[in-house]
Fold:
Amino acid sequence: MKSLLDVSGITAFYGSSQALFGVDLQVREGEAVALMGRNGMGKTTTIKTICRMMSHRDGNVVFDGQDLAKLPSHKAARLGIGLVPEGRRCFANLTVFENLIAAARDGAWDFARISELFPRLAERRDQKALTLSGGEQQMLAIGRALMTNPRLLILDEATEGLAPVVRQEIWTAISQLKQAGLSILVVDKSLKELTTVADRCVIVEKGITPWAGNVADLTPEITSRYLGL
Ligand code: ATP
Structure:
């Protein structure tokens, strides 16, 4: 499988405080990769760096063969990385439909296809985002990322704080996206669901990535050592 995202040896800082000390991570075409680690280990910082919301000091972020640091922002933004950020940010005063259309770029994902994935969004098409439940807002955040017609979808804590039934709906949708061939990088706390959807896992600890491998190779020793489970 061809590599779509290749992160190698990145370091990143918040002011003078170093958060990443050398993160390596790969996502191949059509693959789902789980980025795992305890709180504060550097998962969100890694994602922010990939999405150019932060700059890295050392190392490289290469997407589809292009070094992101060398591209002007407008070009990097159009390469095809769709982010579902932590905290499901949507435009509160826009309707569901307006939120989706505002994110749209040419491609196979449009309102009709999002409605098939999340029928509840179609039902709430003309409601303002602020009137949606947490789960519906999360569906909308995923819908917005899909409307950009990404080649890589990145989900940061997409099921955080949601009721079990809604979480299951979100995981079902993520599985469907994976089956449809989308490449996915996902951060979440639910190990069981993560390992059901993901092909491979990368573990982040204290700003480095000490272990990466197939889901099948994730032993109890590894989950206990790095995830405290
Ligand atoms: P969580 O699961 O809690 O979101 P995480 O693995 O995503 O954790 P990060 O949010 O990437 O971890 O944090 C990595 C390190 O960077 C932590 O030590 C954190 O305290 C620090 N950090 C994160 N955001 C900031 C910030 N805005 N300013 C300063 N330090 C930060």
User: Anything to note?
Assistant: The chain has nine helices and ten strands.
